[in-house]
Specification:
The complex is a heterotrimer of chains A (about 300), B (about 325) and C (about 270). Chain A has about 300 residues and is α/β, with parallel strands linked by helices. Chain A contains 12 helices and 10 strands. Chain A is globular and about 60 Å long. Chain B starts with a helix and ends in a 5-residue tail after the last helix. Classes of the chains: A alpha/beta (about 300), B mainly alpha (about 325), C alpha/beta (about 270).
């Protein structure tokens, strides 16, 4: 075998060998989001998500919040914290320079970046996207424990659960309406059982026409066939107006749909209903209940 | 005459090395954390322990090292490919390798293989995708024992198109969280946390450089055309085969570790040819060094221009590379 | 009889399944200057390609100095045979760099740079071909005739035993044609270089070669001295044209004159 060919093969094998070494390292290094319950309450917290920031404020731990993302503008005070990036991309240097003892990330954070932070010895906790209301509550309680605010967390959750139970009680007696929540325009995406937003429909006394639709890809024809009585549009950009309005107009063309006939097409702010805190969940749920049952507010609840 | 030429080449290598060192030092000193220049010697003196030391040596330095490896590898691959195909538009990605790698990573993200294997699934899936494309393109272009250069380019471009369409298909069908992952990976970045991968990239790039030197004279002869090169005693088929595989592996390695960073493999060889001539004995190493410096510089800009936001480094390489190239073109004739 | 330098035995080759050359069998002696002539498409370039091993023969063998060229290593072949092609590439390197490439076959395994010996050889042949003044000029900036000179110089630096040329003068004006052919003749005489050259111009071939090989439809029609090969009969058979063959008054070599239709009619009436 000619020498240079031999070299080529040697290099290939070397690279392959190194790659194979990397696999166990990768396996070892991959943390699951474990909770370290024994650590003391953190004093320097960085939040990498809007909802996380809101919840920190709710729990009253905002004194320890030293930085958040550029889009953390709720509540007002969050705007003035140090900024370390966005929901999707954090600036690692800034984070390290601020010497946090806890970084809280959402499910959208880049795995590479979180891994790097962990390698640098910074405690990182990542919250996955809750699948339903009870998981959201559980996560909130976990967050409370993490921040040393168990009591407050429990208080808020208990309240929330009470309010939600009350709403459910009310809607139980109201006639069930067929509801379609639209999450995407191109392609058309529906809320299914897999999604957290399905709970809105259920608690508000509605029937999700796309309940068992698997991944959520949906078509207009299906909507026409299912004939929902309420259509709720919650796509990105819909709160600013244009996208949502246009989509509403396109639905209005299909006169056969019950929702169109009764003018029950609503546009909602996706930020509010897709990533709620326990408090805003109740607000959103109430809004949706009103959309589904026009006579909802006539009761004592609101 | 030899002495004069060797002296000139040594000078070129020296200048490029100095540029590389300067760019690396600048990159080390500049960043979002706002560490002032005066403090840096002090931090280095104090050693490990302070957060600032960590920023310099655990965040910035790995990026610089990876920039060195990837910039060098991509430029080298571009030089090799432009030499084999004698076509100025050829770069590592024209052969469809980046398309294959993106597809691999896309599938990984869509099917959540990283849940099973860990974060290492990203580079592995990227590399496998690249390798599959390489094998595919190679076997399609081998006819009766010769590597048809015309066919390869066309096949490569086709594969690029098909891969991007498939990637877009996967993106259309996936959920928004996955979408972000795919897009970020496609945009390319040097912030790989796994030191083992970084080391692999460096070793791979340097090994590639050394290996390429066994064929630098062959490429010089190949510049006259394949037949002429055969007349000069070059085993053209063997050379084309080995170099093609080498360039593909260099590209596959780069893409799998740092995503898609375009233009480096296209522009740097051209620029270097304008300054050093077309002799591959100097072209390989100067492309490598220049590519390394260029990528480190672009990465530094990417992470400081609108901090705390970090731009994808591929955007910077495209803009700066393209602008510099157009300027250089207007001043001097493009040569191959 | 001197042992033949080039021995082509029973050669049949072509592109793909189609055979262009059939049963070619001939020898070229050391020191000969042989020209290959024949109509377009008869296989002249194909023959050169087979000898320089660009094409693999379907059948037959080619021996150079007793050795089968099919078994030689690439560099070894390049040290023995050098090829000057019809149109040298107009690349962006200096003439000197271009000519230096001719020393590649002599580079040892891990050698990267030309030795002083290489430099001297290049210098010598640049002088011989009068290309010295073009040393630092780019190949893309000189005329075609000068490029051809550089190409010959490059082939010479390979110090081959056999020099193959494929229509080296077809794109050149008459001054350069004569210049290059005179050069080749001188090289043949002074260096003892064996030359096998494809020429399309019958008169030039007749003037400059010791033997001619007339190809027709892929096989040898006639091989021998110019007087034997260039007769009105053979030309008519192969080229299907009526010509007049006379002796060149200066050199004594056969010279071909075209006969136009008008003159043919005149002849008839006379």
């Amino acid at each position: 075998m000619k020498k240079s060919r031999l070299f080529c093969l040697i290099e290939n094998w070397f690279v392959a060998f190194l790659l194979s070494l990397a696999v166990p390292c990768g396996l070892l290094a991959d943390d699951h989001d474990g909770m370290e319950k024994t650590a003391p309450a953190p004093e320097r917290i960085i939040s990498l998500g809007q909802t996380i920031t809101e919840r920190i404020y709710l729990l009253g731990a905002d004194r320890n919040l030293i930085a958040d993302t550029v889009y953390c503008v709720q509540p007002e005070d969050a705007k003035y914290k140090e900024k370390v990036g966005t929901l999707l991309q954090a600036n690692l240097e800034k984070i390290v320079a601020l010497k946090p003892d806890l970084v809280i990330a959402s499910n959208l954070a880049r795995p590479k970046q979180l891994r790097k932070l962990k390698d640098l010895g910074i405690r990182v906790v990542q919250f996955s996207y809750p699948k339903n209301f009870s998981e959201m509550c559980r996560q909130f309680l976990e967050l409370g424990e993490l921040l040393g605010k168990e009591e407050k967390a429990k208080e808020i959750i208990d309240n929330t659960k009470k309010e939600v139970a009350a709403i459910r009680m009310k809607t139980r007696n109201l006639p069930k309406k067929k509801v379609f929540i639209q999450l995407g325009i191109k392609p058309l995406h529906a809320v299914t059982r897999e999604s957290f937003l399905n709970d809105y429909i259920e608690f508000a006394g509605g029937e999700n026409i796309a309940l068992n639709e698997g991944r959520g890809a949906y078509s207009r024809e299906k909507v026409l066939r299912e004939n929902p009585e309420v259509i709720i549009i919650s796509t990105m950009g819909s709160s600013e107006g244009e996208t949502g309005k246009k989509e509403k107009e396109s639905w209005m063309k299909y006169r056969s749909i019950a929702a169109v006939k009764n003018q029950n097409i609503y546009i909602v702010n996706p930020d509010k209903i897709c990533s709620p805190t326990p408090i805003t969940f109740v607000e959103a749920l109430t809004e949706i209940a009103e959309m589904i049952h026009p006579d909802f507010s006539d009761g004592e609840l609101k | 005459m030899i002495d004069r030429r060797i002296r000139r080449w040594v000078m070129i290598i020296f200048i490029l090395t100095v540029i590389l060192i300067c760019v690396s030092v600048i990159s080390l000193c500049v960043g979002a954390a706002g560490i002032s220049l005066k403090r840096i010697p002090h931090i280095m003196w104090e050693g490990r322990g302070s957060g600032e030391y960590s920023i310099l040596f655990d965040i910035r330095l790995p990026r610089i090292i990876l920039g060195f490896a990837i910039g060098g590898a991509l430029s080298l691959a571009g030089t090799i490919l432009q030499g084999i195909f004698r076509n100025p538009l050829v770069e590592p990605y024209t052969l469809g390798i980046s398309g294959g790698a993106s597809l691999g990573v896309c599938l990984n993200i869509a099917f959540k293989w990283y849940d099973a294997v860990g974060i290492i699934a990203y580079p592995i899936s990227g590399f496998l995708g690249a390798v599959l494309v390489i094998v595919f393109v190679y076997s399609l272009s081998m006819k009766r024992g010769t590597l048809k250069t015309q066919g390869i380019l066309l096949t490569g471009v086709m594969i690029s198109f098909i891969s991007s369409s498939l990637v877009m298909l996967i993106m259309a069908l996936s959920r928004s969280e996955d979408l972000h992952g795919i897009i970020f990976w496609i945009m390319g970045s040097l912030d790989e946390p796994n030191m083992l991968l970084i080391r692999m990239a460096v070793i791979g790039a340097l090994a590639g450089l050394v290996l390429s030197y066994f064929f630098c004279l062959d490429l010089n002869a190949l510049a006259l055309g394949e037949e002429e090169a055969i007349h000069l005693g070059i085993n053209v088929e063997k050379t084309k085969r080995i170099l093609f595989i080498l360039a593909s592996i260099l590209t596959g390695l780069s893409v799998s570790v740092s995503g898609i960073i375009g233009f480096v493999g296209l522009i740097i060889p051209h620029l270097m040819r304008m300054f050093t001539g077309t002799d591959h004995r100097i072209l390989f190493v100067s492309s490598f060094l220049a590519g390394a410096s260029f990528l480190i510089l672009c990465d530094t800009l990417a992470r400081t221009v609108i901090e705390p936001f970090e731009l994808p480094v591929g955007v910077i390489t495209g803009i700066i590379g393209g602008a510099v190239f157009v300027y250089a073109l207007s001043k001097k004739q493009v040569t191959l | 009889m001197k042992k033949a330098l080039l021995n082509v035995e029973d050669l049949s080759c072509g592109y793909g399944k189609e055979l262009i050359l059939h049963d070619m069998d001939f020898k070229v002696s050391r020191g000969e200057l042989m020209c290959i002539i024949g109509p377009n498409g008869c296989g002249k370039s194909t023959l050169l390609r087979s000898i320089s091993r660009i094409l693999k023969p379907h059948r037959g063998k080619i021996f150079l100095d007793g050795e089968n060229i099919a078994r030689m290593r690439h560099k070894e072949l390049a040290q023995k045979i050098a090829v000057v092609s019809q149109t040298p590439e107009s690349t962006v390197m200096t003439v000197q760099e271009y000519i230096l490439l001719g020393r590649l076959p002599y580079f040892r395994k891990y050698q990267f740079f030309e030795t002083n010996n290489d430099e001297n050889i290049v210098q010598k042949y640049m002088e011989l071909t009068d290309a010295l003044k073009l040393k630092e000029t780019l190949m893309s900036e000189i005329s075609e005739g000068e490029r051809q000179l550089a190409s010959i110089a490059r082939a010479l630096t390979q110090e081959p035993a056999l020099l193959l040329l494929d229509e080296p003068t077809s794109h050149l004006d008459i001054t350069h044609q004569v210049q290059i052919l005179e050069l080749i003749k001188r090289l043949n005489r002074e260096l003892g270089l064996t030359v096998l050259m494809v020429l399309h111009d019958l008169n030039l071939a007749s003037e400059f070669s010791s033997r001619l090989l007339l190809l027709s439809n892929g096989s040898i029609h006639k091989i021998g001295r110019p007087e034997e090969v260039i007769t009105y009969k053979t030309i008519e058979e192969v080229y299907k044209t009526v010509v007049l063959v006379e002796k060149n008054p200066l050199s004594g070599k056969p010279c071909v004159f075209l006969v136009t239709e008008e003159e043919m009619r005149k002849e008839k009436t006379v």
